[in-house]
């Protein structure tokens, strides 16, 4: 009889008892994973995902019943900043993507038709550090997401 191994990567989400927070939604694969919350080096909340990612469309979601896509896909001043390895393992379709060589990061200005996609190696483990910026005009709007990605640091 074969045994199955449960790993941290394969956390399950109880949709009847969702905790407040941010989740990594692998839409193309059908897996939603809660992200752990910590304080970033910048003094704001940061959400962390560690594990393998399946190729295809993905999102960060939250809110009641996970109905909020973060960032909101509006047509003005919303988007992603891809930093570190995130620039190589993610792409944003239907967006204005501007690479800043001075800062070594990519700004992706999105609209209602934009999609975040994982294009990295699905056999590798990654660490994602995600910061959500909102309240640009005095109200919560989940306007911008910064994604820093890296390979796990060997101890």
Topology:
Layout: E1 22-26, E2 31-34, E3 36-39, E4 45-52, E5 56-62, E6 68-70, E7 79-84, H1 86-89, E8 90-93, E9 96-100, E10 105-109, E11 115-118, E12 125-133, E13 144-150
Parallel strand pairs: 7-13
Antiparallel strand pairs: 1-2, 1-5, 3-4, 4-12, 5-6, 5-11, 7-10, 8-11, 9-10, 12-13
Name the descriptors.
155 residues, mainly beta, seven-stranded mixed β-sheet, six-stranded antiparallel β-sheet, 13 strands, 3% helix, 46% strand, disordered N terminus
Describe the structure.
Helix content is about 5%, strand content about 45%. With about 160 residues, the chain is an all-beta fold. The protein starts with about 20 loop residues before the first strand and ends in a 5-residue tail after the last strand. Mean pLDDT is about 85; it is low at about 1-10.
Count of discrete alpha- or pi-helical segments spanning 4 or more residues: 1
Beta-strand content estimate: over 45%
Helix-residue proportion = under 10%
What's the helix-strand series?
A: EEEEEEEHEEEEEE
* CA-atom Rg in angstroms: 16 Å
Number of strands: 13
> Structural class, please?
mainly beta
Question: Sheet with the most strands?
Answer: 7 strands, mixed
